[in-house]
Design goal:
The protein is an alpha+beta fold. The chain contains four helices and 21 strands. It is elongated and about 175 Å long.
Length: 382
């Protein structure tokens, strides 16, 4: 009896153990498996491959100067009676900017007028004598030598009249020059004289500049000059304009270096609104070369592994290490040309994320995800 009881207990225990294991297996089968980690990428973490023109630029800086400027000087010695302009005043061509005293000039002109009248009177008398003596010569009342002497007096009289007329013209012009006029449209940048001041010939009266056309004078290393040509575009900024961009073109290049292994390049700048002023300092770049539109990625998206350039591309929600062939790198624009490996519209990781490795799952922002899905759909359709 006892053995039968033991056998029953053993069978019951075995059955219970088997049922317990079966229940555990069922529970394990019913328990869902853990989900893999999906990295959520922010818009600032990614970049879309786009096509754009790549430019090879050269940095430059220099001073802006008006292309047209002049210093008006006195053409006569006289006292300044009136000056009608101040620094900063706009003037037009022919406008009076100063009036000099003309008392002495009037007296000189009157003296020259008297000399001219006297010379003309003498000439008239000499001409009358010549005509009279010509008639006597024709009647053989006087000799040829006598007539020639009288005729030469008339010739001398004509020369005297021409000399007196020239002196009168000089005196008349001096009178006109007593009114100092602006030779161009522009702005008074400096007034050199004051009313009542006695000035001499060639004394500066005022400096005038035209701001409509400016020139940026920039020293460029002599080694870069072979790549610079007239007409190349220059983009630059000037302090105080809140980031406003200005554009100019290379106008000409100085033919000799200035002693510091650099050569001055002159950049023409339109300034019709007169915003730029002479002496302002500008910094910018000159575009040496410009390519056709090519696929580009940010420089920060490039990786180097075992001598191979690659990018981390997001494809169907997964990070893929995609090998690429890199072309021109533009440090100024922070982009690099991609010759092959990825095409326009591809989404790449543009920052260094140490926790994300190739093969990891990643989700894109909604806008980027939709764009990438559309790009993939286009590829499948094509």
């Amino acid at each position: 009896l006892i053995p039968l009881v033991l056998i029953g207990l053993i069978l019951a225990g075995s059955t219970a153990w088997m049922m317990n294991n079966k229940n555990k297996s069922a529970e394990a089968a019913a328990k869902p498996s853990e989900k893999p980690t999906v990295y959520e990428l922010a818009q600032s973490d990614i970049a879309t491959v786009i096509k754009k023109e790549l430019r090879t630029n050269l940095s430059l800086s220099g001073t802006l100067m008006p292309l047209n400027q002049t210093t008006v000087k006195s053409k006569v010695a006289a006292e300044v009676r009136q000056i009608t302009v101040q620094e900063g005043d706009k003037v037009t061509r022919g406008q009076i900017i100063a009036q000099l005293d003309v008392a002495d000039l009037k007296a000189r002109l009157a003296a020259q007028q008297a000399s001219l009248d006297e010379a003309r009177a003498r000439l008239a008398l000499a001409e009358k004598n010549r005509q009279t003596n010509l008639a006597l010569l024709n009647q053989n009342f006087i000799s040829q030598n006598a007539y020639d002497g009288i005729a030469s007096s008339a010739d001398v009289g004509q020369a005297s009249v021409r000399a007196a007329e020239a002196q009168w013209q000089i005196a008349k012009r001096a009178m006109d020059d007593a009114v100092v006029r602006s030779p161009m449209d522009g702005i008074i940048s400096k007034r050199f004289v004051q009313p009542g001041e006695k000035i001499n010939f060639d004394t500066p009266v005022a400096a005038i500049v035209s701001l409509n056309q400016m020139e940026l004078e920039s020293p460029v290393p002599a080694s870069e000059i072979p790549r610079i040509k007239a007409g190349q575009i220059v983009n630059f900024n000037v302090d105080g304009f809140n980031g406003r961009a200005f554009v100019g073109k290379v106008a000409r290049i100085n033919p000799s270096e200035n002693g510091s292994r650099s050569i001055i390049v002159y950049v023409s700048v339109d300034n019709t609104d007169n915003a730029l002023k002479g002496g302002m300092f500008a910094k910018g770049t000159i575009t040496l070369e410009k390519s056709a539109a090519v696929p580009v990625v940010p420089l920060s998206a490039l990786r180097e592994e075992k001598g191979q350039s690659l990018v981390h591309q997001v494809v169907d929600g997964k990070i893929v290490a995609q090998a690429v062939v890199v072309g021109v790198r533009n440090e100024d624009e922070n982009v690099a040309e991609i010759k092959s490996g990825v095409t326009e519209g591809a989404v790449v990781i543009a920052v260094k994320l140490d926790t994300i490795k190739p093969g990891a799952l990643a989700s894109l922002p909604k806008a980027s995800a939709a764009a990438a899905e559309g790009k993939n759909t286009d590829k499948k359709t094509n």
